[in-house]
Amino acid sequence: GGQCQRIGIARALVMEPKLIVCDEPVSALDVSIQAQVINLLMDLQNEMGLSLIFIAHDLSVVKHISDHVMVLYLGNMVEMAASDALYANPRHPYTQALIASVPVPDPNYVKPAVDAKLAGDLPSPLSPPSGCVFRTRCKYATDLCATEKPKPQDAGDGNLVACHHWRDL
Q1: pTM of the full predicted structure?
Q2: In the prediction, which pLDDT does 113 show?
Q3: pLDDT (0 to 100) of residue 52
Q4: Are residues 62 and 89 in the same domain?
Q5: CA atoms within 13 A on the CB side of 157
């Protein structure tokens, strides 16, 4: 397990890159092998001054490896922030739902109750909704969301949020 990932990393390093794009590099691996591959990437990043674009669905892995996180929904950026800030205070409803869904491995820890369930079905990426692409699943959506695509707004400390209503959440 993880040998193909290590070979892929070695092949990428032959060209002495400054940037490596890692698309789901640990998604099909068991947890111990995931940790080995992630630690290898982090060691290489520190030793060689590499930048990584790490694409993943496993938010616990993303939190561990990332300095900054960009959250996408149907290919659109909905939030971007420093990793610690994003996980401590997610501002977009989709980011809030994603983070609320991450299981906590401590059986004694009780997660705060957060109503972050997403309603509706995922729209087709080939025919996304008008305005805000998340509006069909968002409990805060208004008429404005149907007509105007939200532009990324500075939410402070370098955080960007693409939501008309992020200040009210």
Answers
A1: 0.86
A2: 63
A3: 94
A4: no
A5: 11
